[in-house]
């Protein structure tokens, strides 16, 4: 049965910044070459920590005052959104900006700015008259998406989607849903992270026993490795241009892929410990919505963050859903760039998209000794895998408070 | 301290808070907002930096006194002098 092009959502543009690349081609090349980029950075109150740091040029799209008064998350969202629009080939000046929506996933927002101000007033004996008037516009939860609208002159809806570390997928799903509802004609959707600028995230993971470390920073994030010891926090972002297929075809857009299925569910069991049963349900529901079977999925991009418990839980779920799937390959991106928090889902999907063209599945790296409890069939370890063809990618992204998300994209076929 | 010194202090603050602006040919008698892309948040930044960097307080009722470099100098010089002699 032919599906209505007005009910199909496609990706027509992509912009990103990752610790190991500021364009998709640079990022992909490093994923195929096994090049991680994690560094030691000074962290207030904590000494040095491992972190994934982006080196995109904010001045490419912002004035210096915008950078000074805005937030890092806003700046990353602007860079990614502008790059995405450029990539999409949209006639930006010719479209109705009231029909553009901005949906940006974030794990958290406001910690960075609040910590900075508390530190600032600590230099003035905690006198709150030195607290900046920029605090509220910087810390409102819609800030990163709102900065995009101000920078780009967008008059449609904007907000952030707070979904812990499932936020990147959640942003994309929100964008797709708003297009299906006819609320907008173009969605700028994805996720961002500025979390490396807040000591609280690092200190919180450290207190939880979940902060990754290694004498070589580039080895600090090592999902599935027997010696893995936690998360490397990163900043970054990935924003996509989404459109209804009918609109994309009418303007002759280059269609990168189609979003064919998704699901978000909740564990309702534990604030931090994942629940493999619900993760499996989430993946199955996304596959069902896409009208596919597990055997149809060519790549499973895992969420695994390199915590001792979390990786095992996700592998349990993946083993269960993808048992008897001989052509389904499994990989992970956090071993290269750490955990980009609200950007993770969107960035990890991006790194896999070129597989539609080059038929390579990028590996997960830093596995010196595979933990038997993390072993799963067709886990692509340390070297890319050339396969016959990649038509579908399932992207997992999970977060605290038991939020699970799975997003499926497919090679576009008219 | 002279009025010229005060104008330079204000210009240094503006250079910090509005780094995209060209400040070399600012007319001291003309309102700053007519020459520069400054909004109300920027003026609050000027007030904050006077407080932080120089211990100078500008009550809200007096904000209009900061309209131009000349009016800034007229208004702020006695405050700087009072602070110096305190």
Identify low-pLDDT runs of chain A: none
Average of per-residue pLDDT values of chain B: 96
Q: What's the story with the biggest beta sheet of chain B? A: none
Strand content of chain B: under 5%
CATH homology group of chain B:
ACP-like
Q: Which CATH architecture of the largest domain in chain A would you pick?
A: 3-Layer(aba) Sandwich
Please give the domain count of chain B.
1
From the 3D coordinates, which CATH architecture of chain B would you assign? Orthogonal Bundle
What is the CATH C level class of chain B, in words?
Mainly Alpha
- Alpha carbon gap, first and last residue of chain A: 13 Å
How many helices of chain A? The count is 14
Radius of gyration of chain B: 12 Å
Provide an overview of this structure.
The complex is a heterodimer of chains A (414) and B (86). Chain A folds into 2 domains: 9-250, 3-Layer(aba) Sandwich (Peroxisomal Thiolase, Chain A, domain 1); 261-410, Peroxisomal Thiolase, Chain A, domain 1. Chain A contains 14 helices and 15 strands. Chain A has helices spanning 24-33, 64-69, 72-88, 111-122, 135-139, 143-152, 167-180, 199-207, 245-250, 276-289, 308-321, 334-337, 344-352, 355-358; strands at residues 9-17, 39-43, 47-52, 100-106, 158-162, 186-193, 233-234, 236-244, 257-266, 299-301, 329-331, 360-361, 385-386, 392-399, 403-410. In chain A, helix 7 crosses helix 13 and helix 10 crosses helix 11. Chain B has one domain: ACP-like (Non-ribosomal Peptide Synthetase Peptidyl Carrier Protein, Chain A, Orthogonal Bundle). In chain B, helix 1 packs across helix 4. The radius of gyration of chain B is 12 Å and the shape is globular. Chains A and B meet through helix 2 of A and helix 3 of B.
